[in-house]
Write a structure and sequence with these properties.
The protein is mainly alpha-helical and about 60 residues long. The chain has a domain at about 20-55. Helices cover about 65% and strands about 0% of the residues. About 0% of the residues are buried.
């Protein structure tokens, strides 16, 4: 997903621009939270494969 840069603030205050900026930031946090939750719950394919690979590597580790 490409990053969305924050818009540059105009010299004059515009309430509509502030609302758009706030919503953009809120959406970014929601997207990030969803990705963190998916990784925490191992529901994404990449995190699931990473966990299996880690468990497989631990099977070959010595206990001493």
């Amino acid at each position: 997903m490409p990053t969305r840069p924050l818009p540059v603030a105009p010299l004059e205050y515009l309430a509509r621009d502030e609302q758009i900026t706030r919503r953009t930031i809120e959406n970014s946090f929601e997207d990030l939270e969803a990705k963190v939750d998916a990784n925490r719950n191992k529901t994404s394919k990449q995190s699931s494969l990473a966990m299996r690979r880690f468990q497989f590597l631990l099977m070959g580790a010595s206990n001493g």
